[in-house]
């Protein structure tokens, strides 16, 4: 499973930070940061989701009010949102 986070879409509500420890607050930007991720496009970050964190990652994506977080399965199919 993979998570994709679009920092440009993020509005800094930080619900994702409360749901999954891979997200942290960046108060200087007013945005969340996806730890251990790679920037694959301007402001778009991707990382693998450990098996023991899949539930939390999915919940973080579901709670994002602007759909800045997308979850993909191992075949690249979009699961959330």
How is this structure best summarized?
With 81 residues, the chain is of the alpha+beta class. It has helices at 15-19, 54-63, and strands spanning 2-6, 23-26, 31-34, 38-41, 44-48, 69-72, 78-80. InterPro entries: Fe-S_cluster_ET.
List the domain count as a whole number.
Answer: 1
Q: Please give the CATH class.
A: Alpha Beta
Number of helices: 2
The proportion of strand residues reads 35-45%
Distance between the termini: 14 Å
Main sheet makeup: 5 strands, antiparallel
Describe what you observe in this structure.
- There is one protein chain.
- The chain has 81 residues and is an alpha+beta fold.
- The chain has one domain (2-80): Alpha-Beta Plaits.
- 19% of the residues lie in helices and 36% in strands.
- It is built from two helices and seven strands.
- It has helices at residues 15-19, 54-63, and strands at residues 2-6, 23-26, 31-34, 38-41, 44-48, 69-72, 78-80.
- The strands form two sheets. The protein has a five-stranded antiparallel sheet, covered by helices on one side.
- A hairpin with a 2-residue loop joins strand 4 and strand 5 (44-48).
- The chain starts with a strand and ends with a strand.
- 21% of the residues are buried.
- The model has no long low-confidence stretch (mean pLDDT 96).
Name some characteristics of this structure.
alpha+beta; Alpha-Beta Plaits; five-stranded antiparallel beta sheet; two-stranded antiparallel ribbon; 2 helices; metal-binding; iron; iron-sulfur; Ferredoxin
């Amino acid at each position: 499973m993979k998570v994709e986070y679009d920092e440009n879409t993020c509005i800094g509500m930080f619900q994702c930070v409360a749901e999954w420890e891979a997200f942290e607050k960046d108060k200087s930007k007013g945005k969340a940061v996806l730890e251990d991720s790679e920037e694959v496009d301007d402001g778009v970050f991707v990382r693998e989701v450990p098996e023991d964190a899949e539930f939390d990652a999915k919940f973080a994506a579901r709670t994002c009010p602007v759909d800045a977080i997308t979850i993909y399965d191992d075949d690249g199919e979009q699961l959330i949102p």
